[in-house]
Amino acid sequence: MRYQITGKQIDIGEALQTHVKNELGTVLEKYAFRPTDATITFSKSAHEYICEVTVHLSTGLTSSAKDKATEIYAAFDGVSEKVDKQLRRYKRRLKDHHKDRAEPVELFGAASYILAGEAESHDDEPDSLQPIIVAEMETQIPSLTVGEAVMQMELAGAPVLVFRNEKKDGVNVVYRRDDGNIGWIDP
């Protein structure tokens, strides 16, 4: 497994890197997953340290968590507990479905755009109704079942997930509704 441990404008010492590798390795071994890589980023905001972890599993699913604390080790320990909880739930769902994905998730490339927000002055009419594109990026769309898409959305802590439905071979969307339930769009 590859670890990428970085600090945004703070120095990450060898002791912290060793602690991160040992603790995260223990969490991942507990659930017998085959993680491919983990990205751990530390930063500081005022008096608090922020730790963000993203773990990519060989099945194609991704687990991510974020926590903050006044001490850097406490921030990582909080994130480690969140990742542990996510992976425990994921494994339980796999057991409940009695289905284990034999092949990795297939990914398809797609264009992703960031559009400019509304202008600060609401008095002026815009010259055009076309949105201004701020950035263009490449993104990946996974090929999943609806259940796996809901799992992936919850693992990533995302409000919405676009995926290619394996059963119907079309693009679908799952999202978290305001009432707490999950919505599914199948065009």
Automatic annotation (TrEMBL):
Keywords: Cytoplasm, Translation regulation
Localization terms from the record: Cytoplasm
Pfam annotation, one family: Ribosomal_S30AE
Gene Ontology biological-process entries: negative regulation of translational elongation
GO CC, alphabetical: cytosolic small ribosomal subunit
Keyword Cytoplasm among UniProt keywords: yes
Recorded GO MF terms: ribosomal small subunit binding
SUPFAM superfamilies reported in the protein's UniProt record: Ribosome binding protein Y (YfiA homologue)
Limits of the Sigma 54 modulation/S30EA ribosomal protein C-terminal domain: 130-183
Annotated family: Belongs to the HPF/YfiA ribosome-associated protein family. Long HPF subfamily.
Protein's name according to its UniProt entry: Ribosome hibernation promoting factor
Organism expressing this protein natively: Salipiger bermudensis (strain DSM 26914 / JCM 13377 / KCTC 12554 / HTCC2601)
Phylogenetic lineage: Bacteria, Pseudomonadati, Pseudomonadota, Alphaproteobacteria, Rhodobacterales
